[in-house]
Amino acid sequence: MKRVRDEGHLNRIRALPCVLTARPGVHAAHVRFGWEPAGKRPTGMGEKPDDRWAIPLCPELHTMHSGAQHNHNERLWWEYVGVDVIAFAAHLYEHTNDPWMLQELVAIYMPRRTEYLVRIADMMNGEKPNLKEQAND
Predict the structure, then answer these.
(1) Nearest in space to 65 (alpha carbons), one of 21, 10, 122, 137
(2) Does a structural domain hold residue 25?
(3) SS3 73
(4) Backbone φ and ψ of 7, nearest 5°
(5) Structural domain tally of the chain?
(6) Residue 57: beta bridge partners?
(7) Per the domain annotation, does 14 fall within a domain?
(8) Is 59 domain-assigned?
(9) What is the pLDDT of residues 69-96, one digit of tens each?
(10) How confident is the model at residue 45 (pLDDT cuts 50, 70, 90)?
(11) pTM
(12) 1 in a domain, yes or no?
């Protein structure tokens, strides 16, 4: 199946703040794991998902730090930081032509619970996430 590209959507994602840190200068991070109820098929190694499944994520938490999304089981990683990333990506794409709504969606999906904020801060300081801890929450 051929990947659907949407450079306009990716540019609008890159203009948003990070959903976890509120920092500017984000990557358009693609969600790779599948979620059939949302019509999201899993993607394999070396294959990017459709651009509709991109979200704003700072470089540190996307790829740079040892605790970054790309370095762990992605589904567990997003649960660990408290974001329903499939719903978030779907909502971003649904409202891609409404810059105000895109900003609002980042605010809506940004974690607020102290335990998630501590986890995010720890990862920004280079710590690896304890994904086993998430299973006990």
Answers:
(1) 122
(2) yes
(3) coil
(4) -65, -30
(5) 1
(6) 27
(7) yes
(8) yes
(9) 666 678 888 899 999 999 999 999 999 9
(10) low
(11) 0.84
(12) no
